[in-house]
Amino acid sequence: MDGGTANETPVSLSVPEAARVKERIDNIYNQVQHHLEKARERYKEAADQYRIKELQYSIGDEVLLSTKNIRTERPTKKLDYKWIGPYLVKKKINEVAYEIELPSNVRIHNVFHVSLLKKYIRPKDPARQLPKAPPLRITEEEGYVIKDIKDVRRRGKGWEYLVIWEGYSEADNTWEPRKSLNDEAMLRAWHERHPNKPSPYKSLALAGS
I want to staple 86 with a disulfide (CB 3.0 to 4.6 A). Which of 75, 112, 120, 209 is the partner? Predict the structure, then answer.
């Protein structure tokens, strides 16, 4: 006793006890981070779904196409058009992708993500209508780039591939017809890496044997 007050002895933990306490704290922290990440994912998914619902089109609708991945004959990107068109919607691929009707001389993939399209409201005053769509040119680096293939499936008499697009999330993956991908070498290489997946090349090999 010192002046009527008991000496306070610091609480000491053995090394194993301290390790267990630290492990519990780490577990709690990791669980909190996990739940926060899940909450962020749910919020983003809900926001994306709301945005997608706002960007739905019907066959025959007129839409404008963003020039984000496209070059026109304008001298520089700074002076380029932000949107070109209008073009007609030909087909709804899924909730996030549409096929549009491009001029026959434009040899680019004509399926676009909804973020690259916007509804065209034709003005009542003809003088305010957009000029005729300019000539387009596109390079491989500026296209709608395929990052990877995730899956394959039969669709009627044809084949479709689940495409992962460069710069987009998993929610934006789209099923694309084999013929529209226009890269047999890439598809063959993918099937070589995934021999257990169904493949159009297996049927071709059997037919040739």
Answer: 120
